Amino acid sequence: MPHVSKIKLKKSVASDIGNTFASTLLEIRGVRGRAFLIELLTPTERIMLSKRLSIILMLSQNASYYRIRNMLRVSTSTIKRVHTAMLSGSFSEILRRTAEKKSRREFWNLIEAIARGGLPPRGARWSRPKNTGL
Asked: pLDDT digit of tens for each residue in the chain (134 aa)?
């Protein structure tokens, strides 16, 4: 889990920092944006945020807690926490931006690739060879 200082910031300072961070992210796109996030975030932070986004998107597609837990290797309590936040109106901008059919298809292709763990797509190499007499 990422370390957060116990020293609290003033609300105005925290707000300014958050706004600057969001503005900077919006200005950087494409490969530069990817490089920026890789430099800025630790591997643990990238994984944490990626899993959180995946949970949000899988829940929006009515995936079961069981499927999410097994695919992403997260706890049921984590899924429940995100789901409760979604039901209370959080993540509306994420859901709006990923509602396009193309975005959903790309997301599910990524989730399937993660679930396969680097194995080829189903049927690509695992089907029985034809005309072998078997």
From this structure: 566 778 888 999 889 998 888 888 778 766 677 778 788 888 888 888 888 888 998 898 899 999 999 988 999 999 999 999 999 999 988 888 777 766 667 766 666 665 555 455 555 554 444 554 44
Return d(Cα 2, Cα 5) in angstroms, integer. Answer: 10
Q: Cα angle vertex 103, ends 28, 24, to 5°?
A: 15
Domain with residue 52: its CATH number is 1.10.1270.10
Residue 126 belongs to some domain of the structure: no
Residue 4 is assigned to a structural domain of this protein: no
Tokens of 6: 């116990």
pTM over 0.85: no
**Domains: count for the chain:** 1
Q: Does residue 18 fall inside a structural domain? A: yes
